[in-house]
Amino acid sequence: MRPKHQLSLILCLILIGSLFGSQANGFIYREFTIHEILDGSTNIVFGKIKSIDTKRLNAIIEVEEDLKGEKLDEIKFNVATGWYVRGSSPQKMMKLLKVDMPLILFYQETHTIEGLGYFDGTWFRTRTGNPEGWWIFTHLCPYMPRTFNGTTLEFRQVVRAIVAGEKWVAAPENAVKVLVLTGNSTESMPANSPVPVPTNTVSYEYNAIRAVREAGEKPLVYESTQDRSLPGLDEVDVLWLGHGEIAYRGYLLNEETEQTIKGFVENGGIVIVSGQDSDRERPFETGWLVGSLKGAERKPTQDFEVTEQGKKLFAEPNPVESGQLYIDDAWTDWDGDFEVLATTNDGKDLVVGVRKHGKGMYIITSLRNDKRSTAKGNKKLMENILYYAAHQSQ
Question: Which residue among 268, 332, 385, 388 has the highest number of C-beta atoms inside a 10 angstrom radius?
Answer without folding.
Answer: 385
